[in-house]
Amino acid sequence: MLTNLIVFILASIIGSEVISKVPQTLHTPLMSGSNAISGITVVGALVVAGMVGDPWAMYIGMAALIFATTNVVGGFMVTDRMLQMFKKKE
Amino acid sequence: MKQNIIDIAYVVSAIMFIYGLKRLQSPATARKGNQLAAMGMFVAVAATLFVQQILTPAQMLIGLVVGGGFGAYLAKRVEMTGMPELVAAFNGFGGAASALVAGAEIARFLAPNAADLMGGAVMGGVDAITISLSILIGMITFTGSFVAFGKLSGRISGNPIIFPGLRVITILFMLGAIASIVYMEMGAGDFSAAGFVGEPVVQAAIAIAVVGALLGILLVVPIGGADMPVVVALLNSYSGLAAAATGFVLDNTALIVSGALVGASGLILTNIMCEAMNRSLFNVLIGGFGGDSDSAGPAGTTSAEGLTVNSTTADDVAILLSYASKVIFVPGYGMAVAQAQHAVRELAEELAKKDVEVKFAVHPVAGRMPGHMNVLLAEANVPYDHLFEMDEINGEFETTDVAVVIGANDVVNPAARHDKASPIYGMPILDVDHAATSIVLKRSMRPGYAGIGNELFYNTNNQMLFGDAKDSITDVISEVKAL
């Protein structure tokens, strides 16, 4: 528990340092991209749904898996679509 | 051994997320950064699928394909103007997933074969707290995001919805959430009740989910459409916190690190948005401020003080722009509504052909989402190095011949600088009034989202070009070409 808290705090600090330097022009892709990263819950969904064999855990976990994958795949793809439009003057 | 491989894979993916985000610091490397983060996700998922003992791999793959297919469909189909609501919807999915994973974790603890599954671990007090928080934050994110989705896509009115007792009810629900968490805390560790649904922990979990869902709705309905950039950023942060809470539930480093990164990202954006409006987060969350612009109010060309506005025509604007040496465009939400970004880019190109220096000034809260204008202009092929942030460009209005305001309102209202009585007093604005001439494209004289008149419109060196922004710009383009 304590280790987890330390990891959480350190990751928050790194996140703040990295993200505060993102320019305004990329704030939308930053949001959709980081949103896709928050879909990391997909890993949790795989663990709870897949490793059990308990029907309740399986059903709830499957629902979580579908939501999280939508978030991950959709989020990264739409961010990519946006970012490929950002061009410098040719 | 297996656990070590998985842990290493998670650290690798966390590093890829961090460097992926770092590359978002420049538009030149941003796309690679996003791809790196996506690969990080692939590493984490692949390690989980292949190294963990997944009992039902076929079902898992089906889940991945269904969710992935749906996400890909949404991502491919969306129009760039629909981006704010799509981001809100994805946020909601993430929140729901976190809540569901925490719910499934309870089911694991309660499973008849729980002792084997959890390696002998039983649900303790700490588990009860992390699981409750994960469900609560996840559900708030879920319903809150979908209310935001409804407001952004126009399915729900963008005006703040406030009814008597709203605050009291919200506070009661918050107390209810705390009570449910305490109830789960007491039920943890003692699973003697008959049946799954009869367990106090399960009942508490359902109660927390319901209360969280209602809280999410209650927290977002009172917030006006124009405050949506703050809300979307805040919900973004919540979705990260929900994932991190789930990480605590599962003791999973990948979730904790990624969740913390996203939580920090959302909070920073929230903060930037609040500062750009000179309002505290609390003030935004209380709501009631500002609905959809151009939807209400009188439509006169004379102010209360008897001041009048100068109305102009497309050919006059065309002449003014063509013979200027420097023009700055100031886009706002009205440009998005009118889908005028392509026309604006064409006008900018026509002017550049006539050796006019053209720049774009983007206020941080222009639009309905952080960076909204930048994405629309990027879609219209405006190079990003033509876009300038408020602090970079504000000094340049002094030397600008014409500033063209397209569907922006409060972010160019000089009252914010000096009128202490104005609701937007103190909000940093783009100094459009310092330009030799300002032209405002607007559908009518109706006030902006803050419901207040704009001093700029009554300036002697300001001219109004009334009409739909896209039609107006198209007219100006043909006049410019004819010159």
Q: Your description of this structure?
A:
The complex is a heterodimer of chains A (about 90) and B (about 475). Chain A is mainly α and about 90 residues long. Chain A has a domain at about 35-85. Chain A is built from 4 helices and no strands. The termini of chain A are far apart. Chain B is α/β, with parallel strands linked by helices and about 475 residues long. Chain B has 3 domains: about 1-75; about 90-250 and about 270-285, no CATH class; about 315-480, Rossmann fold (3-Layer(aba) Sandwich), CATH 3.40.50. Chain B has a 6-stranded parallel β-sheet. In chain B, helix 1 runs antiparallel to helix 2 (about 30-50), helix 4 runs parallel beside helix 9 (about 230-250) and helix 12 (about 315-320) packs across helix 18. The longest helix of chain B is centred in the N-terminal third of the chain and has 28 residues, at about 85-110. Chain B starts with a helix and ends with a helix. At the A-B interface, helix 1, helix 2, helix 3 and helix 4 of A face helix 1, helix 2, helix 3, helix 4 and helix 9 of B.
- Report the span from N to C terminus of chain B: 76 Å
Beta-strand percentage range of chain A = under 5%
Tally the structural domains of chain B. Answer: 3
Average pLDDT reading of chain B: 87
Largest interface: A-B, 82 and 121 residues
How would you write the strand order of the largest sheet of chain B? 3-2-1-4-5-6
Using the CA coordinates, give the radius of gyration of chain A. Answer: 17 Å
What does the oligomeric state look like here?
heterodimer
Order of helices and strands of chain A: HHHH
Q: Rg of chain B from C-alpha positions?
A: 26 Å
Which ranges of chain A are low-confidence, i.e. pLDDT below 50, for 5 or more consecutive residues?
none
Biggest sheet layout of chain B: 6 strands, parallel
